[in-house]
Design a protein that fits this description.
four-stranded mixed β-sheet; 8 helices; 307 residues; 30% helix; alpha+beta; 2 domains; four-stranded antiparallel β-sheet
Length: 307
């Protein structure tokens, strides 16, 4: 970004909001990246010449997307209340989840991904099992039994939480121990760590763009930490990249253009590919963010005796 004064950085020049420029100096805007490439890496005396600006813009955005998928450590967080339908709509810029948590009693409680199927599409069938169609020839659907039982709390779970169907100890009938035998998996021979979970569970349906929770998550606060695609919902003026990755973006644009250009020698394309890979590797090392203090906190208990 262009150089700005301290007053502009801290107070936004007296305009509102005053936090508009906080943290912005460590980033380079998409517009600056394209302008810099057209000025410094393109021309009659450069490998890349006679390229339209829109092509450079396209490859720059693709490079930023690749960084967000592969290398960035920047995570967005979104907080929403899960209603009675037990769904959390994924953000429009969602790529992959990092952690999904229940926020309750002042604590963030990480949730476990449900390996059981908890939602499905159900077709309406006639008495002989044939499907029912509408006037346009499409199969008529309804809410599945899986969804109905999940929302009502009837669906049992293999996880050790409130939905697992295990009977309460106070009301335990010694003549009917099926709940303990069938649903406390690993209870007799040791805890099954794969299903050891007190908190609610979730399962992501990417096609529908939602997160489905079990019934114990109703009316609770959910925090989704996720990786973004970096495209800022299509607003190019908001797209930026960390300065540590700026040189990689230029190398990515150069390689992408040379790789798709006619009559470019193979050794030139290979050199551009190697430059791109080397700069990405260097940027990952720079952004690894490994601090001695964090390692020390993890190692403090290594000599502690286990009684």
């Amino acid at each position: 970004m262009a150089y700005i004064s301290q007053y502009q950085y801290y107070e936004n020049g007296g305009a509102s909001p005053d936090d508009a420029n906080w943290g912005s100096y460590q980033y380079v805007s998409l517009n600056d990246i394209v302008n810099n490439f057209m000025l410094m890496y393109s021309g009659n005396h450069s490998l890349v010449n006679n390229e339209e600006r829109y092509k450079v813009l396209f490859h720059a955005k693709r490079g930023i997307q690749e960084l967000n998928y592969d290398a960035f450590k920047e995570i967005k967080a979104l907080e929403l209340t899960v209603t009675e339908n037990l769904k959390f709509i994924l953000p429009s810029d969602y790529v992959n989840w990092v952690r999904i948590s229940l926020y309750k009693d002042g604590l963030i409680r990480p949730l476990t991904e449900n390996i059981q199927l908890n939602t499905a599409k159900a077709y309406i069938q006639s008495s002989d099992g044939s499907l029912t169609f509408d006037g346009n020839g499409n199969v008529i659907t309804k809410e599945s039994l899986l969804d109905e039982q999940r929302k009502s709390g009837q669906q049992r779970s293999i996880y050790l939480n409130k939905s697992n169907g295990v009977q309460d100890e106070d009301n335990y009938d010694e003549n009917d121990y099926r709940g303990y035998r069938e649903y406390s998996i690993g209870g007799a021979f040791g805890l099954n760590t794969e299903t050891a979970n007190f908190n609610p569970t979730f399962r992501i349906d990417k096609k529908s763009g939602v997160i489905n929770f079990d019934s114990t998550m109703a009316n609770e606060t959910c925090i989704l930490e996720y990786i973004s695609d970096g495209m800022e919902n299509g607003d190019d003026s908001l797209i930026s990249v960390n300065k540590m990755f700026e040189e990689y973006i230029y190398a990515y644009i150069k390689f992408s253009i040379l790789n798709s250009k006619f009559n470019v020698q193979e050794y030139i394309v290979n050199r551009a590919r190697k430059d791109k890979s080397a700069l990405l590797r260097n940027a990952r090392i720079r952004m690894s963010n490994i601090h001695p203090g964090r390692l020390l906190m993890n190692l403090r208990g290594q000599n502690k005796w286990i009684k």
